[in-house]
Amino acid sequence: MGLVGGMDLSDNMMLRSFRKGRGFFTDRKSPRHLAEQVVEELHVKTPSIETPVRKLSGGNVQKVLVGREIASAPKVLLTAYAVRGLDINSSHTIYDLINQQKQKGVAVIYVGEDLDVLLELCDRILVLCAGKVSGIVPGRGAKKRDVGMMMTRLGGNSDE
Question: How many other β-carbons are positioned within 10 Å of the β-carbon of residue 61?
């Protein structure tokens, strides 16, 4: 989500900056440069930046999307299931990008379900059960069992 499959990489980069255009005149150089930069830095496998996004693999699509969003220098980066369905190499690329953003002082909100990843990636983990917060634990110090118990209402701060 967040990209248009029938559009090429450059045009998808413009989705983030289209408001900067002046009437009928749109800056096409900056999005093209950004697309080239994302392809090079994130090792996106594509024949060219004119290739429609729908022809890329899932991992490469994800790299394009994350690269575009990070290029906008966000103060808060919200990701939801950012690596679902991706191969291990693409997943690690996304994790590295998220960690780089944390090091730059960006507040990263990572929504995920893989406890091993959450425990490794997150500074704090907020656990939800049935739509309610059942606990908040430190990421690196938490134990899978404790987090799992909070997920089932058998542990944590449930009202029942």
Answer: 23
